[in-house]
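User: two proteins, same treatment. go.

Assistant:
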Amino acid sequence: MVIGFVLIHISPTHEYEVFNKLSMLKEVIELHPLFGEYDLIAKIEEEDYESIGQIIIQKIKTIDGIIDTKTLTGVKLH
């Protein structure tokens, strides 16, 4: 299982709209507002790195109001 943390920069006045759209994605298992350079952090879980990339490209970056993302990836340690 691969974990991705996506830092999301949102254009002003789109915060609630983007938050609501992201919260409806089944791949987003946690979503938290932030203050500072990024506006939200989303935690996503998938089977592999390729799937994480596809979610970010096809489902997250296509949401209106998202300016930029930065993704941090990792794996679960047992």
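Protein 2:
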Amino acid sequence: MKKYFYLFAAVLLSACAAKISAPTDVQLAEASKYYPGITISDLNDSKALYENSCGSCHPLKKPSSRTEEQWRTIMPKMVVKANKKGYGIDKMKEDKLLAYVLSARNTATPQ
């Protein structure tokens, strides 16, 4: 019985997690406002970092679920927590991660 409960909980949590799509050229243009010189490859790396680092501790938040100010406050605190778990997010990765989240936030299509 416990096995089914855990399976149900896992399915339910994965269904509630944010669906994060691949970065687009529109998102790249937006991210360039925050981090000039960022590339689509950087955005893809940041997306993976967001999913793997942030998503390892809690369900992913949709980038549009927070304001820019909230993300700017939350991100440094979360990076400190992630680094305590050994993720090794340096300042450059943090900046690109923030650029990714903000650009995804600003280019999200309303659901």
